[in-house]
Amino acid sequence: MTDAFSRRGFLRTAAALAAVPTLLPADPAVAAQELPDFPPEVALYRSAYRNWVGEITADGLWACAPATPDQVVAVVNWAWRHGWRVRARGSSHGWSPLTITRDTPPDTPVLLVDTASHLTGLSLESPTSVRAGTGVTLEALLTYLEEHGLGVTAAPAPGNLTLGGALAIDAHGTAVPARGEQRLPGHTYGSLSNLVVSLTAVVWDEASGAYALRTYDRDEADCAALLTHLGRSLITEVVLRVGADTNLRCVSRTDIPAGELFAAPGTDGRTLASFLDRAGRVEAIWFAFTECPWLKVWSVSPSRPLTSRHVTTPYNYPFSDNVPRPVAELVGRMVADGAWYLAPVLGNAQYDTAALGLVATLSADIWGPSKNTLLYLRPTTLRIATNGYAVLTSRAQVQRVLAEFTAFYRERLAAYAGRGQFPVNGSVEIRVTGLDDPAEVGLEGARTPLLSALRPRGDRTEWDTAVWLNILTLPGTPHAEAFLREIERFVLRTFDGGYAMPRVEWSKGWAYTDVAAWSDAEVLDTVVPGSIGEEAWGQASGVLDRLDPHRVFGNAFLDRLFR
User: Fold this and answer.
1) Is position 440 annotated as part of the catalytic site?
2) Going by C-beta distance under 8 Å and a sequence separation of 6 or more, which residues neighbour residue 95?
3) pTM for the full model?
């Protein structure tokens, strides 16, 4: 085995992907020649771009890190006048080509604007709202809120996500109300975008004939398009509604068979729906070719249960964050030697790591302020590709969605394996959230995020829940795209609007052909706009074009999506 795919080499590669992008100061003479008249107060750099799994890369792009929102405006106006495009970059923790497209050459007139260096301010706007720069990480935001007795109901697991990136793609956690639970003021069961009270964006100002900063309140029509903008805008600052922090208990289990957890509705036993009823907050991680998922169940617990370990910091699953030797060596063999048939061995190694690690680290039953159980994924974890869909349905139909999806997944995985093909070597991950109900922000006339996957359907008011479905596999796994295309087609035809309907998860993989994601014309042109609603899609597209008529904020993929 070469060092590149030894355990040491594998971990070194993961660490490199996890690192903050290296920004190399530019030669002033070269910068002046290639970017004439660039705002002198903003330093220019050369930078590589790498997405989460390194599947979308670009080397030697020009980049800058404006220190203030006004400097951002100066950069955007320079780009507009010189025919360049601007791409905001936070932590680059995403899969889809919303920031940079595949194979972007170094001489492309695109400028990366790093938000995480300076746009990180935090301050309380009121006892129930916080003003935050969009470059702040979720961990920094939640830590600040915790220090002031505040928190959120749910959040994505990685703490290194920037707030701006999270809002751009309606990032979410996993939470619905348990039976009898009353929502706390300032909290939402939907996406983080649903917490926005106001936002400040760089938009075209017709009066001045240039781009300028403008603040939009949540009750303004244009704000609805900016709440989840997919990279078709640049937001510098937001005000979020927040509420009192809660203590959460998180209990992990690895002893419930998938056949029981995902059983058909009406079945007695330890079904996922039964845990939703009792606690409201669940996540299932089902490693490929294993029988029992890793189930996490969070519950609101004001005081520490006797059996729970009090946690004072996040990231309490070190066995998940740091790739253990058996897993690293298996991944190395699969990638370096093409030993993809080891997928069942890898799945069982991952399951064993979780089951044993929970015991060894005393993390099977933890309790503490919400941040410390909600954030559990570091950038040093195994980098893996994923698809993603949100299936909107009623709370009563969640178990049916799970039963039908997991049965098809299991059958197709077995069929591929029977042909000697192993397209999945990661896991299925399942989360359940509420929808983006604008009433939860507590502002009269608040608008619903137009492009959020959690946007309610006005004609299906009984649909109050979303089931998030992800399948994870190593980048480059043979037959993965063909398998995921079959999954996507199943999701589209099964959840066809009768009792449920799907929307794509913007940051993940979707629109599969047999060889690539984000490539199927029918999904791009018809399915995606149709799932949002033609009227809402047209409204959002029109607003984003009006606020950025020169398409400074965009790339070839977004041009294709919003054509």
Assistant:
1) no
2) 51, 52, 53, 55, 56, 385, 386, 507, 508, 509
3) 0.95
The one catalytic residue in 93, 187, 485, 503 is 93
Residue 354 token pair: 């979780």
Residue with tokens 């996540």: 283
The span from the CA of 33 to the CA of 413, in Å, is 55
Residue 82: phi and psi, rounded to 5, are -105, 10
Active site residue 447: no
Active site residue 412: no
Instruction: Find the length of the chain.
Output: 563
Q: Annotated catalytic residue: which of 139, 172, 218, 283?
A: 283
pLDDT tens digits, 26-83: 777 888 899 999 999 999 999 999 999 999 999 989 999 999 999 999 999 999 999 9
Q: Which residues of 435-469 are buried (b: 16+ CB within 10 A; e: fewer)?
A: bbbbebbbbeebbbbbbbbbbbeeeeeebbbbbbb
- The one catalytic residue in 89, 218, 229, 431 is 431
Kindly report, residue by residue over 394-432, the tens digit of the pLDDT: 999 999 999 999 999 999 999 999 999 999 999 999 999
The answer to whether 148 is a known catalytic residue is: no
Tell me the C-alpha distance between 427 and 382, whole Å: 12
